[in-house]
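Field: sequence (string)
Field: structure_tokens (string)

Example rows 1 and 2, in order.
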Amino acid sequence: MIGKLNHVAIAVNDLDAAAALYRDTLGATVSGAVPQPDHGVTTVFVELANTKIELLAPLGDGSPLAAFLDKNKSGGIHHICYEVKDIYAARDKLVKQGLRILGSGDPVPGAHGNLILFLHPKDFCGTLIELEQQP
């Protein structure tokens, strides 16, 4: 069902400093910051040869990422994103197996404009999983 690793998301307190660390220290290609108001975060993508790193910072007071950073003061890995060909088929198969989809269970557009959904971390070894449908 899952395809390749799309990205690893890292929650950060200071998006500019984190982007500079990857760009200036490691020599990575780093995108500009893009607010994602529907998700309550601002994202920056670090391009790697085989995947991406998504740097996430809270956007606004109601950001769901703020609670994560309250518990993890230095930031840290927030989620892992895998690609799928058909997000609806993947969702239906997972639900049939008794696994939980976060939110309404309906896929929504993500940072790349592709449909995404999140799987409950308690069902996946304590790891928040994002599935992203590829065109």
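Row 2 begins here:
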Amino acid sequence: MPAAPRPNPDVRGNRRLFGVLGPSTNTVVQPDFDDMRVRGVTNHYSRIVVQDAQAISDETFMAGTLEISRNTIDAVRGVLTCNPDYLVMGMSAVTFYGGAAGAQTWRENIEREAGLKLCTGSQSLIEAFNAYGGIKRIALISPYYPSANAQVANFMADHGISVVRDTCLRCPSWTAIAQVPTANLRQELKLLDGDDVDAIVQVGTNLSMVKLAAAAELYLGKPVIAINTATYWNALRQNGITDQLDGFGRLLADF
């Protein structure tokens, strides 16, 4: 159902209340989004309850993400009780599944249940590419397994974007994603870079790369886009909030 009318503006979220949906095992999205929060916007995290998957394989990764997808509606119902203005998806894998058509259907199903618009990571990356301009070939880094990276590549192809090469970190559990050392990620970015890619893209919202991606843009001289940055930037812009922030890369500083 739509947000109930308020007799007065929310004293902290007088511009927008964001309902953020994220897996209960995710420890990165909530602080990342709060770091990018601007005056008058507040984030209200609703946990998609899921067990911390262990000994993940290519097959069980896909099964685990689909479990998160199935449990999303319960998290939506929970966060609707605070009457948010807008929903933001803090889990990216399922938002790529089924290509452009599958991603749209998934988003519209959530929007229909909630009566609110939903910002997803997959669509936010396309909006980010459009903002930067000239991005047609990308390198991809994820905590996923190859089957999920293939879904990302399929989604990108539907939008005219080619994944030239990719890295799957194959993290062994959901919580282990948040434990990948920054030094490892920095090395992976160097291996992925090349004159044949226009940008480097990171997906997987529990992988902490907001600050590293911003720094890497400076020393690599090209867009390096973290999924959490793209998603929160797009959520702000879709709500007409154009505040610019330094320290999170060109998306929030320039566009």
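free_text_note (row 2): The mean pLDDT is 94.
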